Amino acid sequence: MDLPAAPERLFASDNFSGAHPRYLEAMSRANVGHQPAYGLDSHTRAATELFRQFLDLEVDVLFTFGGTGSNVVALGSVLGPAQSVVCAACSHINVDETGAPEKFLGAKLQDVDSPDGKISPHQVEALLHGLGNIHHVQPGVVSITQATELGTTYSVDEIRALCEIAHDAKLTVHLDGARIANAVAAMGGGPETLRALTFGAGVDVVSFGGTKNGMVNAEAVLLRPGLAPHAPLVQKQSTQLPSKMRYVASQFVEALSDGLWLETATTANRRAHQLYDELGDIHSLRISPPQVNSLYPLLPRGAKEALQAWSFFWDWDLSCGQVRWMTSWDTTPEDVSRFAAGVRAALGG
Amino acid sequence: MDLPAAPERLFASDNFSGAHPRYLEAMSRANVGHQPAYGLDSHTRAATELFRQFLDLEVDVLFTFGGTGSNVVALGSVLGPAQSVVCAACSHINVDETGAPEKFLGAKLQDVDSPDGKISPHQVEALLHGLGNIHHVQPGVVSITQATELGTTYSVDEIRALCEIAHDAKLTVHLDGARIANAVAAMGGGPETLRALTFGAGVDVVSFGGTKNGMVNAEAVLLRPGLAPHAPLVQKQSTQLPSKMRYVASQFVEALSDGLWLETATTANRRAHQLYDELGDIHSLRISPPQVNSLYPLLPRGAKEALQAWSFFWDWDLSCGQVRWMTSWDTTPEDVSRFAAGVRAALGG
Amino acid sequence: MDLPAAPERLFASDNFSGAHPRYLEAMSRANVGHQPAYGLDSHTRAATELFRQFLDLEVDVLFTFGGTGSNVVALGSVLGPAQSVVCAACSHINVDETGAPEKFLGAKLQDVDSPDGKISPHQVEALLHGLGNIHHVQPGVVSITQATELGTTYSVDEIRALCEIAHDAKLTVHLDGARIANAVAAMGGGPETLRALTFGAGVDVVSFGGTKNGMVNAEAVLLRPGLAPHAPLVQKQSTQLPSKMRYVASQFVEALSDGLWLETATTANRRAHQLYDELGDIHSLRISPPQVNSLYPLLPRGAKEALQAWSFFWDWDLSCGQVRWMTSWDTTPEDVSRFAAGVRAALGG
Amino acid sequence: MDLPAAPERLFASDNFSGAHPRYLEAMSRANVGHQPAYGLDSHTRAATELFRQFLDLEVDVLFTFGGTGSNVVALGSVLGPAQSVVCAACSHINVDETGAPEKFLGAKLQDVDSPDGKISPHQVEALLHGLGNIHHVQPGVVSITQATELGTTYSVDEIRALCEIAHDAKLTVHLDGARIANAVAAMGGGPETLRALTFGAGVDVVSFGGTKNGMVNAEAVLLRPGLAPHAPLVQKQSTQLPSKMRYVASQFVEALSDGLWLETATTANRRAHQLYDELGDIHSLRISPPQVNSLYPLLPRGAKEALQAWSFFWDWDLSCGQVRWMTSWDTTPEDVSRFAAGVRAALGG
After folding, report:
1. Can you tell me the distance from the alpha carbon of D279 to that of D327, in angstroms, rounded to the nearest whole number?
2. What is the ipTM, given to two decimal places?
């Protein structure tokens, strides 16, 4: 198969891209003198303050190393005895964390089917019948992902409806925001959207992702004020308390102080739209317009394998030839055009 | 109390110091293009290869975020059902990790008294009587710290003796090397010393520390070849698998390729010796000569509080006025001289 | 609603019935003098020997208090690091044990849909793709229930097929036999059938139920010889090691020495068949012929509630009016006839 | 060595003795008809009511299978995130439960030295410094044993002092009462003493032992009203919820309705006193007068081994030849006299 020059950057994952240079610069600027360890430094204070201003809420903020770690800290801070976590079958906590939640929490994940990656209030309601029955785990937390693992997003109203059902039954709501910036960017951008999609809608605890959005292994957990005073203990106990925390926190200062976190996410989203614009006319691909930074096309086996050898991307559903194309903060318009050209060539287009 | 100008850097902890600039430069150099995530990148391969050359052994290498995390991964990779971890009462895993080992491992830490931070073969032997008795936890791992939390070091012979006792009873040996570079530097330096102090002496798994030695939240776990093929699963499950691993691994490439890891540790050790040289004559301090980078003097309450306000350091044993002074890779000779001058002034010397 | 005299015994659960008097007599006979605790007594030896003769295999036998406990001991004895348990969505371990497996094992239960309570080899196969991928839990045990929670049974061939798939991929197979006696009775009876349905077909570890079959809180775990030498430690650690074990073991001696275990199960099965014979002609009930000791009819709401008030039984699926009628070792033919008469009356028949 | 006829019953353990016949009779009387499972039966209600009358307090009561299980349920019901259990080094939970507490709770046991088996308020106080420090486990429960593993007892005042220290720092207090009846019997007997030694003194949760006091694998957990509404979930999750609970509860009805629980404990205590009376004059034994039902004499190796072969008992401290002689509810005066005669003969007396 004769394919044009491959793009410089892959469409495999936003985990394959590097970091925005400004984050490394921010780390270097923070690399001066001595600072108290474990979050008592000035950068951590500044980043915490920025989150509070953004959300107009005195959230508790914990800076962590990784996304799985953030989820474990978040869930471990709110889960009670014999409680379960309600989540989508395809959620990261359920399928991509090697059982870290079950191991650390000692708790069941009650997964519900979700063709679009989202949970409905009705699905939560259906699990509440076990409440009070000592033979069943007690639903304790509803965990949703925004944007979802399938590239879809919840609206503010959808999140609010879930929170109402959950809170009425005394459950809490966790939002896995590994790609929350992409969702915010897709839905208008700005701190107001972030607030509306999280604490404004009733969410209790948020895993706020940085790494996939261009940061150097930097994540945060945001908790509704007063929700879990013991959360910092859980953070340390789950091995997610960075000793030299300034190198995590200083990145968040950089991200939040002038909108860099939204700029990178917006770019990634735009590139996915561009890719859709360049390939959406090929009906056999069956691509839906992206909501954030990924497309899930169908490819014939021969073309798929040729393309993966040319510019690697992941299979999504081997049974039907579905793959995932994901853009990143550093994907360029030229990367997209080259990739689209390759796809056309592979499809004999 | 009239004290001279305080040193620019504190003597509180090697966790208070920043990172050696070369580590940030290495991260920046690694910040190019796309790389496979989760350790399939070229930097991780290179750093792994360097460790293997160093140790002349095909060790399995896992790069992690933090020290507590490294210990949990290391112990979790070798601990069997109903087994316990034998450790010193003052060990980091026992007192400074908020129970992370018990939480993740579901296992007992059997701590033994240790005025000097070290475990003796006799102490291990005394715990073996429980082996085979179903009512008692089964000692499974002996965990030692090198250099210890009290600034002491094990000799190669001492480690070998522990490994022999342990292996004879089918236990494994873990070495918490959060400050292993300081120990290696103190005992001759070089890869040969590292090998002799670890796998050469029979150690099965090592937490190899980077952060306290000047790296940006970077640690490694080294395992005897074939010891625990499931260790990477444990790493992911314990939330210690960095997605953008190149930023951890590239630092280790920098550290190991021309001896930077030993240079920084040697500097820290030297500054502690300098501090001892400048203050060892004050008998009331009761300082022992340092083996690595810390001193544990006694201070009268008034002087102690004045000095802590002037240039912060930690209490060690409040009951007797013992404190800890710790040097770091970035401590300068002038820092030491200023600090020593302050101590003399505070003691009315 | 005018209903005839209610039966003396309920059709609610084989957990509602008492114990066969011979078990209490056996306990009384064992209540003589002193015996070593924790399983070193003569009754435990005798019961173990009987199991070995039955199965013509030197199985390891652990006597436990309860069914959930047996399952936890069995699974905990064979599960490895980061491994999961594959089970049916409706299995007892998945829905009726309040998350005990997740809590004790720290492991994920990967449940598969199962309208008839059984798992197919194809379903196991579909989960094996995760093997070797460090981001996913590793299927480690396939757990099947015999007879299932839905009153169905696996044939020897079906179990063998599951074991082959599992063993080929280095998984083990657990059989939750809370009602294994009912299955054996339904499939011919005798030790040969027991052997064929378990170790003969390749099963690695069995929870052998006693309580639902007329014993006083007595269960056993049977393990393939050499499978898990540490299993007794797991038993103690999971709080399932009876100190005065003679009162559990002596019941198993009584059960196994002259076929009492099969006699009670056979009776329970027969009563279910009698109930089917007496009511199977009522088409609206939609009863399938029982395989063991339970029926799952549909009832109109009014009749259902009247009948439950008259002689209690459990709802099974509220959404469609399905209930469960379960017979027990002590159900009499007259109980069945009275119950059937009540059902006919309630249905206005 | 020429020894007289051995006693019919051993002096090894109150776990070696059988059950008082009245408990088996009570189980037989309860063995009538169907009863709801899992504690909704009439016997469980009656036994609960008896405990409440005894204690003049609406305690929550959970009936369990075993002592280790009771402790796990009790601790699991009150322990919070990142909390530890403070206990004596020689306590059953620390050394004789194969790490069940650490495994189920995922928590550290902070053991304190205790030559007499008891914890002092000062020892608790010394551990409170870690409260609020996120790097240390947070003491959450103080667990004491009454009577202790060393045969000693706490006075009401001693327990009250511990509870005050604990409650002032917001810790709860657990009492492992595997032999609480022996302690109550030793200190005056009757429900008033039980109340005074437990909830009256401030204890929050009690493991109330039955098995060692002559019951058939029957224990109870008593909780201060309102302390832990989720305790029944913890009980099920820890595999300690008997399905046919009537056989546990009916024994407690028998025990509590006319003082049988105290009668058996009183007998055991008396026999220990008789043994002391018959051997206390032999100075080389170094026996202290018993507080409950055990003696801890020193024996020369030759005599010890001869006696153990003649009538088995356990070593206590091999390093100094200390053994344990324990009486039980069924020990007769003649057993004691024979045993004492054997000891005198072995000592060449």
Report:
1. 14
2. 0.97
